[in-house]
Specification:
single chain, alpha/beta, Rossmann fold, Dehydroquinate synthase-like, alpha domain, 2 domains, two-stranded antiparallel sheet, 12% strand
């Protein structure tokens, strides 16, 4: 059977790296459309705009909050009206996914600049499309990964700590999902099985979180860049990105998608809900007690949610949780890559068990 592993064309990380954005963009063209999320447009753009414009002709456009079909079409229309040779996205995961979708539709190279390390989206060849109201809609796959991913750890160190922790929640799922796909020989995001490289990077991602998660959080609280922070940013962004995309997804992200059906969860970050999905998956797949304890201890140490009440679902009833479980088990969802039989009632039970254990440990 053929395996496939995919990577971004170029990955750059370090303190002050955003000053290299213009130089990296100029590798791909002389006129670029730069899409910034609202916070970056207002608060950070002035810090690097001069370095950007010294290298190439740019137009900067502010994105709205959601990566929706409507926003992609608005920006694509803008892109079609200019003589742009590349697209760049600067900001959080939804802004980067929007930039990737716009670039794909316009058949242009794309440079992505995550200013937070809250998801593993930057390196991937896909965009997660939501409704304008923030409910998960679908995955949109692109023919290639970003041409450049540029990560300024000094910027990330000054971002809210909760965002770094949310990235750890997203990254936490990587090894568990890749391991399930390896066991079942499930397809990864390319439609083929993963490689030894992908599965090994997924495990390295998990080990890095356990070793460096707490000191990286402390560094971010102090708004300083340390080796531990560098390693966790790389784990959240590159290792998790390569691990999920080339290793494969399973229950954790499917449960996240199910949770998005409940409006109460919309104010919580992707990685926080993925962490809940990961914890539930431990019960769904019958993981050993010592491993369950290790994962709960990590989540508690860095501040990830370990109960439903911590993602807005205090007092949630079984009817509502069954809606979550049914969406998680929809045809084509990645939960079916798990090596155990899966159905909505089993997922509901796993969510209840996850919540009970998290509540017991507090």
């Amino acid at each position: 059977m053929i395996s496939t592993t995919i990577f971004p064309g170029r990955y750059i990380q370090g303190a002050g790296a955003i000053q290299e954005l213009g130089r990296e963009m100029a590798r791909w063209g002389r006129k670029g459309l730069v899409l910034c999320d609202p916070f970056i447009f207002t608060a950070l753009l002035s810090n690097f705009r001069a370095a950007l414009e010294s290298e190439l002709d740019t137009q900067v456009e502010r994105c709205c909050g959601e990566c929706s079909d409507e926003e992609i079409e608005r920006l694509s229309t803008l892109g079609r009206g200019g003589d742009f040779q590349l697209i760049a996205g600067v900001g959080g995961g939804k802004s980067l996914d929007t930039a990737k979708a716009v670039a794909n539709g316009l058949h242009l190279p794309v440079v992505v600049v995550p200013t937070i390390a809250s998801t593993d989206a930057p390196c991937s060849a896909l965009s997660v499309i939501y409704t304008p109201a923030g409910e998960f809609k679908r995955y949109q796959f692109h023919p290639a990964n970003p041409n450049v991913v540029l990560v300024d750890t000094e910027v990330i160190a000054h971002a809210p700590v909760r965002l770094l922790v949310a990235g750890m929640g997203d990254a936490l799922a990587t090894w568990f999902e890749a391991e399930s796909c390896q066991r079942t020989r499930a397809r990864n995001m390319t439609g083929r099985i993963g490689s030894m490289t992908a599965y090994s990077l997924a495990r390295l991602c998990y080990d890095t979180l356990l070793a460096d998660g707490v000191p990286a959080k402390s560094a971010c609280e102090g708004k300083t860049v340390t080796p531990a922070l560098e390693r966790v940013v790389e784990a959240n962004t590159l290792l998790s990105g390569l691990g999920f995309e080339s290793g494969g997804l399973a229950a954790a992200h499917a449960i996240h998608n199910g949770l998005s059906a409940l409006a109460e969860t919309h104010h919580y970050y992707h990685g926080e809900k993925v962490a809940v999905g990961t914890l539930a998956s431990l019960f769904l797949t019958g993981k050993p007690v010592d491993l369950v304890a290790q994962v709960y201890s990590f989540c508690e140490a860095v501040g990830l949610p370990t109960s439903l009440s911590q993602i807005g679902l205090a007092g949630v009833n079984d009817e509502e949780l069954l809606r979550v479980a049914q969406k998680a088990c929809a045809d084509g969802e990645t939960i079916h890559n798990e090596p155990v039989p899966v159905n909505p009632h089993a997922v509901l039970a796993a969510l209840r068990a996850m919540d009970a254990e998290g509540t017991r440990r507090r």
